[in-house]
Amino acid sequence: MGKIMYSTGQTTIRIGWWDRILFAILTILAIEAALYWADYWFFGGHRVNIFLFILLSYAVFRGVVRSVISWIFFQFIAIPSLHTSTTHRTVDIFTTAMPGEPCDMFRTTLIAMQKITHPHTSYLLDGSDDPQLKSLCSELGVGHINCKGVPGAKAGKINYCLKNFSKAELVLVLDPDHIPEPDFLDRTLPYFNDEKVGFVQVVQAYYNADKNVVAHAAAEQGFGFYGPLQMGLSGLDSAIAIGANCTFRRAALDSIDGHAVHLAEDACTSLRLHAAGWKGRYVPYRASYGLVPEDLASFFKQQIKWAKGMFDLLLHEYPKAFFNLNIQQKIYYLFAGTFYLNGAVTLLTIILPVIFIFFKIYAIEMPISGYFLHITPYVIASLMLSMYIQRWYSAPQEKGFPWRSMFLEKGTWHIYTLALFYSLTGKNIVWIPTPKSGSEKTSITLVLPHIIAILLSCMSIAFVLTTYPRIDSGTQLMMVFAVMNVVSLAPVVFWGLFPKKGCGA
Amino acid sequence: MKSIFIMLKIALISGIIVAAYIYAIKPFERVGLEVYYQRVTKNLVQDKIALTQESEFFLGLYRPELPYEFGMLFVVQEGLSAQVSIVSYYQAWGDQKEHAFLTDVNRNLVNGGYTPLITWEPWVSAFKKFRDSQVDSSLNIISQGQFDLFIHAWAREAAKLKKPFFLRPGHEMSNPWYSWSTSHGNSPESYKRFWRHVHDIFAQEGARNVAFVWNPYIPADTANYPGDKYVDWIGLDIFNFGSLAENGLWMDFYTVTKILYDAVKGYNKPIIIAEAGCGQGGGNKNDWYRDMFHSLATKNFPLVKGLIIFDAPQAQTPSGLPVDLSFTSDAEVYTKIDKKEITDHIKIKTYHKGENL
User: Fold this and answer.
1) Would residue A10 be called left, alpha or beta, if left means φ above 0 and alpha means ψ between -120 and 50 degrees?
2) ipTM higher than 0.85?
3) CA distance B3 to chain A (A)
């Protein structure tokens, strides 16, 4: 880990010794602030009902623990230095078509695929044997492979093609909505000079992120991940494959019997490759631009798939792979697999204050001044850190306080909770490709749970103000939580009810 | 092997970070809080003199469920059309949570417009060290500094309340019920030393808002008077147990009060009737309360600036007999009392419905 300079075309990422030292100092200060907050919460003598206290503590400190873990991953941030490729490697590029996806989209993608400068062969894996796509392929010189009836969704088609048609040493899998840059392969190929590297991942960027506030928020959710976190993991040889835009070494895929067929096929493939001892690399380069959901309905559909996929991965794949993973991978996959528990946690933080207020059972009795006094250093420190790591983002437009994505994450709690329920009960959701076109219809049912939550919170506040003879500190704290819930859920309700107004971005 | 090495490294680094928290940050917090307390909080404490300067007469109430349930307090306010301004409750010394200064409770009281009167009972047997043991001359143990940490912590929290309130430590110093009484090996000298010791600690903590109420039991208790410098108010406990009393006599408010009042009026301190209650047998309870207010209205006792009704349905006489000292249970008590006299002559604040919670 030395001094690093990497040009992404839009910005130059600089990681010098002083950046690292300052970042490490900030991290230690932030951890001390987190300890200060935890010490007050757990050992300040505020516990009342121990069962509810444990539940509430989990809801409050889950985020703190996750932040600390991600700060630790950030310490290892690195972009491996480039070695000019001496050996020529053959490359195949795959993209998949599902029935019902618009033909125009394929024209744009396939043209861009053909423009990639490094010599390669392109394939369209067509799930419906569409004559229109067939003629498009022959026009552009792209191999059309009829995958009609091949089971296993996208991964099944990739494996079918690997087995029967593709002979190349490296395989790039592109999502059909992603338009690659011509230098895509020039950026990723040099890393395969290290024979232990199994795949190279690039940034997932979007060309419609500025379309409206939902698209902006959804894109924003990835900025921290496709940046410092992946760069940190890459420094630990454990970058994660995200399926779309990932260049795989064929030998690596063969060693795990092909691309994983799984609801979270990307994460599952990544997990299996890591368990088989392959290294993952990450390049903070925006090598392609795709589509991000533009409305809540399609965002929620995408998220329920991802969330259930990650829960399934944690419950079924992670235990199998556990002993073959190294320590950072063990921590990371647990960290990633539990991310979508934030839905259940939000449900807890909505319900607990209401229960406390209506039934007068307190988890904690803490003076409001003490609460703010002890949480403030942590909040300031974590804000400073999140501002600091933005210097390592792959594009300047990603910088800024990510308030949109914070609200959107909070506002997806019902979807994540549902996914958890599906996963625990073993129920299946049908695999559907993420909708790519924005239907700007108002749908109250999408945000109905939020409206109920907001009403309940408001009612509990009103209940305190009208019926309580005295408002002690335990009640005050619960009122603060209720107010915070109303404030954090309101934007998504607004975006759901007035999608047109949200398009001003 | 490699992973064990990494684990050790993680353990070492976390150990250093936690140790840094315990040895560097926590002490710094203590220093910071101390500086904040000395420089800021202390200056914001309001002086107890405000209680003495108050032009209105303090009407107070004791109920077993106070300061947690206020229903009966509202009944009194409405029944008398007078504002209750003091809430009286009792708290023992000790090292459990319930013995600490009740910050929340007291803040709620002062925010609601009530001044607390806390009767502070130095039962040393509530401390772990003296648990359930019969300690004689307990006041000497206190003066020696055994409980200074407790007193300091309590006094600091009291100062943090900032608003003035009444504190009645070691009341009825000759009542054999109490471990701080002369019946338990304490002397007037040890009582005075105890009182000054406690008072000095409150002064050190800057608790200028605490008005010390010295409360004799019988006229001879004046031997325990700690000095003008140490006493802000004098408290008197006035009871009529009627047929349950040792002499079996129905004693009116004026007669009982006169005896004690004359013994302490020479100190020229403001006086508060810290407990006033009447039993059932041997006379008419409702007349007794009516006469009580009447005698306050006719200025028999000009130094008396406040009175707390001791509304306890399940009390005991000094000889241990159960006695009903309830005030709120009988609607007739309100009809007999002259409300105009209360507000116009005694100068108790008029109650307007819905004024406070």
Assistant:
1) alpha
2) no
3) 7
